[in-house]
Amino acid sequence: MAIIIRRLEVAFLLLFLALVAACVSSFSLNTHQVLSSSPLSFQSSSSLILRLDAKKTTKQIKNRNKVSTSGFGGAAVVPCPCGSGEGYMKCCGKLHSDPSAYASATAEQVVRARYSAYAKREVDFIVGSTHPLNKNFISDIEHWKETIRMNCYDNFELNSCEILDETYEGEGDEQIAKVKFVAKMTQVDSREKTAFQETSTFERAGKNIMGGAWLYKEGVIETAPGMPEPKNLDEELKAEEEEGEQETSDKE
User: How far, in whole angstroms, is CA 2 from its chain's centroid?
Assistant: First the structure.
């Protein structure tokens, strides 16, 4: 009886070992298949990543090679609003950005620059080129600038300042310049063309003020040929300010 039991134990042991061997063989085969296929999958993923990186790199290089059309580069080729035919930065833009260019400019050039300043919303230049004795000069500079920003011909396209006449009287610091011109503009929505004629007077206020540049002292507005009665923007701004102050005073 003991011999029979011993033989059964050996048989079960052999059967167990056979099953273990079969499992190990199957595991090895599957592992080999996985390892054999893995390099291809990894290579495909790597190739995809490399292609994506290459696209990104190419795009970045293209973006770096693009020439900017904004800022100084773009402004240099944009036609100047005054209608001179020159690029903005070769014409009025120089006076707007370079104090020395403004200081050495003629009265005609200042007229053009002031016209372009309204088109470009160069409020600092509009204020800086106004004579302190101009009747519309406001001592509260920041408030004055904000008033101009709110009424800066935004509903019009300004593209032509036609100079009719330029004269000079006197000498040195006492010299007076007068420039007659026609300011032309187009209403943005209706495309209606309008214009006004003005004779502007310029004087200097000494070397310590804007480097001795010509400053807008006053202007006489006239009706441009074929146009309705013009409106003086400076006087309108002054009237609106006085009206606003009056309303504030009434509320108090």
Answer: 103
**Tens of pLDDT along 157-179?**
998 999 999 999 998 888 999 99
Helices (H), the chain: 2-65, 71-77, 92-97, 99-103, 107-120, 123-128, 141-150, 233-251
Going by pLDDT thresholds of 50, 70 and 90, the confidence category of residue 63 is very low
- CA gap 153, 35 in Å, rounded: 75
Which are the contacts of 132, defined by CB distance < 8 A and separation ≥ 6? 205, 209, 215
Which is it for strands 176-187 and 215-222: parallel, antiparallel or unpaired?
unpaired
Cα 228 from chain centroid? 35
Alpha carbon separation from 59 to 49, 67, 104, 107, 176 (Å, rounded): 15, 14, 46, 49, 58
The answer to whether the CB of 126 falls within 8 A of the CB of 117 is: yes
**Scanning the structure block, which residue is given the tokens 């010299």?**
175
Looking at residue 50, the DSSP 8-state letter turns out to be H
Q: What is the pLDDT of residues 117-149, one digit of tens each?
A: 999 999 999 999 999 999 989 889 999 999 898
Burial of 88: CB neighbours in 10 Å, binned 0-12, 13-18, 19+: buried
